[in-house]
Structures are given as C-alpha cells and as structure tokens.
Queue: 2 jobs
Job 1
Amino acid sequence: MALKLTSTIAVCGGKLLKLSHPSSSTGTNMDINLYLPKQYYNSAESAKLIPSLLYLSGLTCSPQNASEKAFWQIQADKYGFAVIFPDTSPRGEGVATDPEGSWDFGIGAGFYVNATEQPYSAHYNMYDYVHKELPQVLAEEFGSKVDFFDNISITGHSMGGFGALSGYLKNINRYKSCSAFAPIVNPSTVPWGQKAFKGYLGEDKRIWAEYDPSDLVKTVTNVNGDKILIHVGTSDPFLEKHLKPHLIEDAAKGTSWEGKIEVNIEDGFDHSYYFISSFVPQHAEFHAKHLGLI
Ligand SMILES: N[C@@H](CCC(=O)N[C@@H](CSC=O)C(=O)NCC(=O)O)C(=O)O
C-alpha cells in the first residue's frame, strides 16, 4: 500500500490514524491525519459508506494542529463522518521555501494552488494534491467503508479557509458543502494572498482569478442555491488586513451567490483554535445535513 501508518491514537469513540505516503503531486512524502469515527469500527463492510470532511489548515500548520485543537472528533462521532487533515505544503530536502524566512509563504504555506513559478513549481502542487491525489490514495486503503469522492464536504481555516472556498467553487459539483473559519476571501487584494499568488503563480492576475473565491463567485453558478457558512471573530488580529470577509459578500452581489454566503462576525473571538473549536459544532451540523446524516 502507498500509505504508511505511523501511529494509531484512540480519540473519543474512534481512532486518529497518522499516515504518510510518497506523493506524485508534490514529489515529496506527505503526512496526513485521518479520523475514523466510531461508526467506522461498528459498521459492517457492506453498510452505507461513511461520508468524509476535508479540513484544510492555515499558515504554519501541520496535520497535528487541528487534530489536537479543533475538537472535530466528538462531532464526527456524533454524526458519523470521517475527517481528513492533510498537510499545508510539501516539506523536506530540496523543497524551496520563503527567501525572506517568513512563515506566510513556502513550507507550511502552500496555499492549496498549483505553482507555475520556479523554484516552487517543482513541489508546490497542493491543489492537485488535496483535490485529486489525496482522495485517491485514501480510497485505496479505506474506500470500502469511507466515501472520499461522492459524499464529501470541505472546510478550513484562514489560508485553509481560502483553500476550502476556492476548491469548492472550482469543483462545484464535487463537495456537498463548504464552510470556513476566518478565511482569506479575496487573496488577490490582500498582502498574504498577493505574496503567495505572486510567488507561486507569477504576475498574471487572470491566473490568480482562477483561484480567488471573490472572483470565482462571479463565474461559477450556484445552481442548487447552496449556502456557504463562514465565521470570523472581531478580535482576530488579521481581520482588517488579510481576511476582510465583507469582500466576498460584495463580490457575490448580483450573482447566484448573493445572500447565500452567511458571514457570522463573532464578538470577541480571535484567530486561534479557541475560536475554531467554539464554532466547530455549528460547522459540523451544517456539513452533517448536507452529507445526509441528519
Ligand atoms: N506562527 C505565527 C502565527 C501564525 C498563525 O496564526 N497561524 C494560524 C493560521 S494563520 C492563516 O492561515 C494557525 O492556525 N496557527 C496554528 C495554531 O495552532 O494556532 C506566529 O508565530 O505569529
């Protein structure tokens, strides 16, 4: 099997599997955490497939941050979905990182795009990795009991919130639902996004628009009247400079997404996993409905 199991940890009623595999998208070994809920261990092979939720983490994260601090596992057991926690970038020998040595670009900051610019294009193909290779690799081992293709939803935080919105809109028939915690909604216009897009994608803003959620809402039709759920805290230090959640609501005006993007601004919450874990139950319920679990 392509996947190597490095540890199995009992959490709530299920198990968190720490996995790694050689990735053809990134040309590196990639770590993944996969939470299999209690239903996985109680159901027969022939039972209905367990749906899954893809969680994309933010800048500086590995698969551990959300696994340890977001408290998805109790929600996954409550409703019966698996949770996939991929890494945020390629890592290891030969992987280029930020020449400035900052944490907002390079290793830990792959931005879920396919880089076209040297030297990043050699390894930074995180779009293909999370949306194409990852479900395939997981299905080879767990596909007889877990659905990684047809009954899957997507969420994420900050850079990963951008990745969730972008991946959902670019694959509009793929994910059953999308939510985001403190996402970068319009990366082409804010410093984190501009640095990443210039570094990974070059100067051509037409390529940036192919990933930018605030551009995608103008070109992708919301055929089913689906809603996107977003939470952001008023005490988030990145709110005014990098997140600017109103920009996606403004962009959606006059499109099929108008009124369909629910942005909840929560008093006093910051950018941390204290904030994320506080709203995970609401996001879990939202996804569980769309995954047919309630
Ligand atoms: N390490 C930095 C802070 C970086 C930070 O806040 N990262 C966020 C995501 S930001 C947008 O993508 C995060 O999730 N950090 C991991 C965590 O466990 O909180 C610093 O030192 O200032």
Job 2
Amino acid sequence: MHVEAQRIRAMAFFGAHKDTGEKRIHESLDELRTDLADYIAQLSEMSVKERGVFAIALSGGSLIGLMGKLCEAPYNKTVDWAKWYIFWADERVVGKSHADSNYKLAKDGLLSKVPIVPSHVHSINDSVSAEQAANDYEFVIRQLVRTRVINVSEINDCPKFDLILLGMGPDGHVASLFPNHPVLDENNEWVTFLTDSPKPPPERITFTLPVINSASNVAVVVTGGSKSEAVHLAIDDVGPACPSLPARMVRPTKGKLVWFLEKAASSKLDSAQFSE
Ligand SMILES: O=C1O[C@H](COP(=O)(O)O)[C@@H](O)[C@H](O)[C@H]1O
C-alpha cells in the first residue's frame, strides 16, 4: 500500500456490517481520493495476479473526478493498465462526444491520461436506440464472459466483474436505477434500458441489480451533504421506510461492498454520533 494511503487509512473511520458493507469515512475529499485510488490499484493487482486481467465497470457523475489520483504517481506507473478492461455500469444514450456522455467524462478525466489499450475500452453503441444499445452491450459482455475476460458467477451465470464502481444521487439512485422505476425489477436481462429517466438525459442503459450484486467487489462513492439522507436510508436500519431505494438494494451476494464516504455525506448515519 502507498505510504500516504496507509496514513489516511489510519485516520479514517472504518466501520463494517455484514450486509451493508464496509464504510470508509474520510475527513476530506483529498483523503477520500487517495484511499479510493489505493483501493482500486490493490484490486487491480490482485485480479491481474489471479486472473491475468482486471474487468472494471465505471459510472459517470462525480466518480471520475474522485478517481483522479490514479493518473498521478505512483499509480500511473505502478498499475498494470494493459490488463484493464473497461465497461460502464450505466451510460446515457447520447453521442460519444456529447457533454452528457459517461464515456466522454471517463475518457477526458482518466482513460486518455493512462496507457489503457483502446480495444479494451467497451463503450456502448451510440448510433442506435436505447433498447438496441442495451441489447448490443449485453451481447458484448456475453462474448467476454465466454472468453473469461469477465469472470462468471457460480451462482447465477451472471457476469462477475472484478470491480463495479458506483456513485449515488441525492434520490438514492445508483447507475441508472432510479427509485420506484420498473428497471429495479429486471431480473432476466444483464443490461436494460430506460427512456424516461427522471434525471436528464432521459434515454439510458444500465446494468441490472443481479449484475451489480454478482460482482466480486462493489464500491459506492458518495460526497456532499445533499446526499447524507440517502446515505442514511441506504445503510442504516430504517425498517421498511424506503423499500425502493436503489442504493439499499446493492448487496453483493458473495462479493465485497465498500462505501467511500466523505464526512458531510456520512453525517446522518446512525454511527456518525459515535465517530466524533
Ligand atoms: O446520472 C448519473 O448519476 C449518478 C450519480 O452522479 P453524481 O454526479 O451525483 O455522483 C452516476 O453515478 C451515474 O453514473 C450517472 O449516469
């Protein structure tokens, strides 16, 4: 582990619960960024050692900026970028050069700054309908599961990504799984689509919950006080108050869940009162 990351881990509040995952609560964004880069680098190293590749699914939004330290020393030199295969847990159905594109965000903020193999970057087909884009993306993933670039779940034949990185909106959405939306009930498809996203743009594709919950590792990265209520509802024992909060439905069956929280985002957690 990088020395700075060791220091930060020692200072952060780390809590664990068997269902709701490990919570890494950081005093500052800078500390969170360092810990996140170190976590991703370590999973990459382990996965490359075990399987020869690292299949990682990204999200859009604030996440990419928070991954920025991967483009800096020591990670830009120590990570085995040639072994990375990149996917998106969700994507907006817009052109790849559109400001709303999650691919463009990742390309500008990360992929263009490190030596990723261009053919390992699996973005969506942006020239077809949302439904077709979801079908095409699932087909691509099926091919790569067949050749074991992406591992397979022993439980349900779903793809088992080495790491799925998620952000979370103030409404508790993750990827493009929004509260009370029918896509939450999609159990047959790996990738599905929506044309009525409550957050613009309306047309999106998204991994389904079975795929997210089949991953070896899932990290949810959340910053900002505006998301503190959703963090509380997603993690704490709130009874049946919010059965449809997508972030609460992220429960990897066999994999490991880690929440990366900056202090303001964690302020409404029940445990926050004990961590002062
Ligand atoms: O629309 C989206 O929003 C979520 C959350 O974004 P954030 O900026 O609040 O972190 C993001 O994770 C998702 O990929 C994106 O399509």
